[in-house]
Amino acid sequence: MQCVRGLQSDNIAMASSSEIAARTGINAAQLRKDLSYFGEFGTPGLGYDVDALGEHLARIMGLDVKHDVLLVGAGNLGTALASYMGWTQRGFRIVAVFDTDESKIGGMLANCKISSLDEIAKINARCRAQMGVVAVPREAAQDVVDKLVASGVKSILNFAPTGILVRAGITVRNVDLTSQLEVLSYYLHKQ
Amino acid sequence: MQCVRGLQSDNIAMASSSEIAARTGINAAQLRKDLSYFGEFGTPGLGYDVDALGEHLARIMGLDVKHDVLLVGAGNLGTALASYMGWTQRGFRIVAVFDTDESKIGGMLANCKISSLDEIAKINARCRAQMGVVAVPREAAQDVVDKLVASGVKSILNFAPTGILVRAGITVRNVDLTSQLEVLSYYLHKQ
DNA sequence: GTATGTGAATTTCTTCACAGCA
DNA sequence: TGCTGTGAAGAAATTCACATAC
Fold first, then answer.
1. Within 7 Å: CB of A44 and strand C?
2. CATH number of B2-61: 3.40.50.720, 3.30.1230.20, 1.10.287.70, 1.10.10.10?
């Protein structure tokens, strides 16, 4: 998907699997196999139509509809995420922001009033958002996720550096910024 | 590593592979195999000493020394990363900040003066940082990475949503915040 | 000629299962 | 008894290679 956008902004209309492979580092055969899993998008002799491919992928990934998102945590990271335009541009909209810090509740972030975490069930009964972003300290993360799930959230992006347990059917993706640098440190150290 | 810290803050001194497995979702056999690759840290019948394990891992990953980091991009994301305390606490220190925006150059971020991207070689000749964080738009990313590498940086954390090409021996880790939500969208859509 | 889609071969990763040790 | 470390088995992913289509 990221690669499709790259091709589009470079005004490339048609791309072969090997061209895409070179851009992404993926093996060409692998790429063809992955794409063919969802259907036959390519034209033998020519390659893949970039725009059509983008639309197919968008439909497959559910990106053809807008998604509402709950944000929990209005600290440094939460603020940055709220003001990160990449998501807004791609059809993700923050519809409510929560925090436990009394001094933050009532303030504004991402055009939303910051609410108490306790109100999450009440507020999402109305919003019906199915996605949540967790930008709170490690200690609070599991509790926050439990509350998100209870309020009806099905998919969660977790920035807290801790493993989260959820019941089957709920998806959690962890983005541990701390461990990213740790991994880099490992590669530096190795050689 | 993240799990070790979790165990430590829960005051657990000794952990078996199955306990760690339950916390992380990793298979117990897998975990033992991974750890045994670096040496024999465990005690049959008892498990792993959490503190000793942490120290071993820190040494293996090169976390026993402090790392200096160059930050490129002083926008929303760059600012958030600069003020993100997680890294400072773990021995990573931002020693210089760069941007191309004239209005930002000269300002302060993370206790550093924001410098022009063109000065990167000169400044890192003195700093000798080996790690870089890229928080710039897609279009600028490859150029920024090239300049970082030219200045002596060996490991790069890239937040721009694009694949980056570097010569062998240089490590790039991509953290594409946009695609994270896209993947969540996919899981939502699937069921 | 060029590039897809895919069965077959290969490699890699994961899990099992158990000998050996505290 | 309980748990590690590891060879062997099994599963999964990757790559090759080619028939087929443009």
1. yes
2. 1.10.10.10
